[in-house]
Amino acid sequence: xxxxxxxxxxxxxxxxxxxxxxxxxxxxxxxxxxxxxxxxxxxxxxxxxxxxxxxxxxxxxxxxxxxxxxxxxxxxxxxxxxxxxxxxxxxxxxxxxx
Length: 98
What we know:
The chain is mainly alpha-helical. The chain has a domain at 9-14 and 37-98. The protein has helices at residues 21-24, 39-52, 56-75; strands at residues 80-83, 89-92. Strands 1-2 form a two-stranded antiparallel sheet. The longest helix is centred in the last third of the chain and has 20 residues, at 56-75. The radius of gyration is 15 Å and the shape is extended. The two termini are 29 Å apart.
């Protein structure tokens, strides 16, 4: 399991090209949002929450950080690879156009 310290924190890097300098500043105000998810997505979210012992809110925040980091790296020509236990690499892509 990945610990909180092992998560890539995009905010530690320079501002992403997806955001303005103002948007890159740490938020001082929390804004509530409504998100529409399927029952399957809710089950997966709760499963991740239970597995990691973190709130659903934290899981969603981490997903945003991770997605932002991956998009930024893809914009620079990078690819997301996962190393399997046998040492083989698998490319992760959820947008077939890229």
